[in-house]
Amino acid sequence: MEIGWMHNPRQRQVLVFFVLLSMYGASAELGPYSVVEETERGSFVANVGKDLGLGLTEMSTRGARIISQWNKEHLQLKVQTGDLLINDKLDREKLCGPSEPCILHFQVLMEKPLEIFQAELRVKDINDHSPVFTEREMILKIPENSPIGIAFPLSNALDLDVGSNNVQNYKISPNSHFRVLTRNRSDGRKYPELVLDKELDWEEEPEISLTLTALDGGSPPRYGTAQVRIEVLDINDNAPEFPQRLYEVQILEDTPVGSWIITVSAKDLDAGNHGKISYTFFHASEDIRKTFEINPLSGEVHLRSHLDFEAIQSYIINIQATDGGGLSEECTLLVKVIDINDNPPEVTMSSITKIIPENASETLVALFSVRDQDTGENGRVVCSIQDYLPFFLKRTFKNFFTLVAEKALDREERAEYNITITVTDMGTPRLKTEHNITVLVSDVNDNAPAFTQTSYTLSVRENNSPALHIGSVRATDRDAGANAQVTYSLLPPLDPHVPLASLVSINPDNGHLFALRSLDYEALRAFEFRVGAADRGSPALSSQALVRVLVADDNDNAPFVLYPLQNASAPCTELVPRAAEAGYLVTKVVAVDGDSGQNAWLSYQLLKATEPGLFGVWAHNGEVRTARLLSERDAAKHRLVVLVKDNGEPPLSASVTLHVLLVDGFSQPYLPAPEAEAADAAPAAALTVYLVVALASVSSLFLFSVLVFVAVRLCRRGGAASVGRCSVPEGPFPGHLLDVSGTGTLSQSYQYEVCLTGGSGSNEFKFLKPILPNLPPQCPGKEIEENRTFYNSFGFNIQ
Ligand SMILES: *[C@@H]1O[C@H](CO)[C@@H](O)[C@H](O)[C@H]1NC(C)=O
Ligand SMILES: *[C@@H]1O[C@H](CO)[C@@H](O)[C@H](O)[C@H]1NC(C)=O
Ligand SMILES: *[C@@H]1O[C@H](CO)[C@@H](O)[C@H](O)[C@H]1NC(C)=O
Ligand SMILES: *[C@@H]1O[C@H](CO)[C@@H](O)[C@H](O)[C@H]1NC(C)=O
Ligand SMILES: *[C@@H]1O[C@H](CO)[C@@H](O)[C@H](O)[C@H]1NC(C)=O
Question: What percentage of the chain reaches a pLDDT higher than 70?
Answer without folding.
Answer: 79
